[in-house]
Amino acid sequence: MESQLHIYNTLTGQKEPFEPLNPPFVGLYVCGPTVYSNVHLGNCRTFMSFDLVNRYLRFLGYKVRYVRNITDAGHLENDADEGEDKISKKARLEQLEPMEIVQRYTLDFRAKMADFNTLPPDIEPTATGHIVEQIEIIQKIIDAGLAYEINGSVYFDVLRYSEGDEYGILSGRKVDELISGTRDLDGQDEKRNPIDFALWKKASPSHIMRWSSPWGEGFPGWHLECSVMSTKYLGETFDIHGGGMDLKFPHHECEIAQNKAAHGSHAVRYWMHANMLTFEGKKMSKSLGNSILPDELFTGDHKLLRKGFHPMVVRFFSMQAHYGSTLDFSNEALEAAEAGFKRLMNGLDKMKSIEVGSASNLSVKDYSDRFYAAMNDDFNSPILISHLFDLVKTVKVDGKEKTVLTQEDKDALIQLVHGFVFDVLGLKQPEGKAEAGDEKIGGLMDLILEFRQRARTDKDWGTSDLIRDRLKELEIEVKDGKDGAAWEIK
Ligand SMILES: [Zn+2]
Known about the structure:
four-stranded antiparallel β-sheet, elongated, Rossmann fold, four-stranded parallel β-sheet, 3 domains, binds zinc ion, alpha/beta, Isoleucyl-tRNA Synthetase, Domain 1
């Protein structure tokens, strides 16, 4: 029996045993991107982290419904409900329709997610596709006496809410401190209290993205869409809600308050937050010039990068840190990950050559227990990877101490390792790189090496070296030994 999955719940600050509300079903909601620019690496890390969560839950046999939204309206430039809508602004600057901006960057986002081999969500709802539902929830919150309309906008009444519930329950912020930390810059704030947040904003005459509502033409507040879409597709109470650490406040705090106000209960049972990404210890930001886009990382076309890295190397690198820790990018760390990834892939290949015998001298169950224990401990992928490397190092296919397994154990080991490497960690052999075990490649290599051997027999060293060098350019290394030539994909 494997250990039980535990999840670090950021709401309670505790690692808790995971008990889904309606097993074997699991509802998972993750805040998706605001599609007004190319997806940045920090976001990619968040989505790779929750891809690991989604994959492992499925691997354990749960029937997961994974919902990840696309924010295509309502996300303003700052958190104080002021400024332009991010998508409208980009549309204005590029002289495009807002929906052209949304389409362009949604496609970019999905392409990058595919590069990183993340599984697509089961439902990918958009804010603009759920205006009606958002209006309904606003009305419910008004009816509950926890929101008020003023000049065509509707605000959540944080003070009123905090008379009965704790606002700040997730982020640890205190209402008094939040109030003293706000400044009413121009004295024209129409909110009753500066910490109230918008559920609906009246659209100014120049605002392009606008919808009719009982309060006039306007658009929904950013925090509302996630409350609405998560509960619409996963129920008023559901299992896991995830997002980047930066969304804890105010976004997720507001979600909690909205759900409680509208439905009378907390929606989320386990809150999970993925940590940030840094470059050489510094937060990535455009102003510091150290912000790298996924494509720049793949091609190496960025002044801070020495070379490009395959998306699978980047994914492997991400999995080498726990999702709750910061992940620090650097050329050295990525190069080390590249070498580690090759070592792991070669190690998997090696397992196909394990000798079969009547008794096993390696315990598959022992490794199985260790792999599950690592992942059951709050999805601890770096520990899982260290166990995988330990296995790769332990398995020997030649020499005195070579590994021998029964056929049954060998099949079980390969299945186990493939399960954790490909299905759970979501790694795959980089495209264009054949698996050494691929039959056709094996046949072709036999043929090429046979021609090379003939050249050597004829003392045609020029041809023999040419074949070796050309293969090397393809990252296939030929090694001559006393039993003939062997080859390896580097
Ligand atoms: Zn959200």
